[in-house]
């Protein structure tokens, strides 16, 4: 009798266990960024933002369609390379992810967006700013930051009106991001009545800029704009000092990191560099951002570089759409994600327009003092 009772109890336990398991919904979120190579510090920053969001969502016990969701992060490295980016995207598609946050660079995000579109998987980039990213008509493509039309144009006007630049030189790294933001900067300069005295280019792996800087030095620029990333901007600043080019150095979000002073090896003067981050918080949102940065540092023992908070928000806005749609299936929650309106994130309020761009995107202008970023203003 006891043996029979044990069998019954065991069967009930197995049944209950099976029921509990059936009530758990596994949701796979992909993240892609350059976690190797020259800008690995930026890719790792982004990935940590995703990990923090996933960990907190699991701790909350989020319910989707009547089931408790268990979120899993599938993280891939694209090394900032377009070919590796599309390979990483295909790997995530094959893994049947429910959504993707990334990529970091425009040059990887743009080709990857077709892979996700073909598979019907939503992609939210926290940092790709090239306008083309959302101009291909893909219904799966979104971003939570302002684009380069706004960023580059604003910096161009700022260089003329506020920095009083009368002879402005432009350099780009020939990536989708670098060239795109430099083009918009040049338009902004000319629109504000300024003069571009020279345009040069390098690449995103270069370390020697002597030739292009010597060419520009002869034109006596008072502002030098660089479209590219901090790993190149740091050595460029060092070589500008060596050549005696005493000009303001301006750049977009790619150079606007906490790492830039180290990469420039102490050659930056206070106020010499002006950069813009494609996002911005003010008023009540500033406390949310400050709280996030404190929480991030306490957990990971490192400061936020640039976009970890935007990755964090991108994950959460995607999951909010799943909750509202009562489904983590891409085809079911995608229309809800597209209609996101007034989502309160740590980076501010997120609403998407019909292209997948954030509405009323902000920019934050920074300079550097004492080796640390110092906020100048938030511009919309």
UniProtKB/TrEMBL annotation:
GO biological process, one term: amino acid transport
Family annotation (InterPro entries): Leu-bd, Leu_Ile_Val-bd, Peripla_BP_I
Domain Leucine-binding protein: 27-371
Keyword Membrane: no
Swiss-Prot/TrEMBL keywords: Amino-acid transport, Signal, Transport
The family this protein is said to belong to: Belongs to the leucine-binding protein family.
Organism from which the protein derives: Roseateles toxinivorans
Protein name (Swiss-Prot/TrEMBL): Amino acid/amide ABC transporter substrate-binding protein (HAAT family)
Keyword Glycosyltransferase (UniProt): no
Extent of the signal sequence: 1-22
Pfam families assigned: Peripla_BP_6
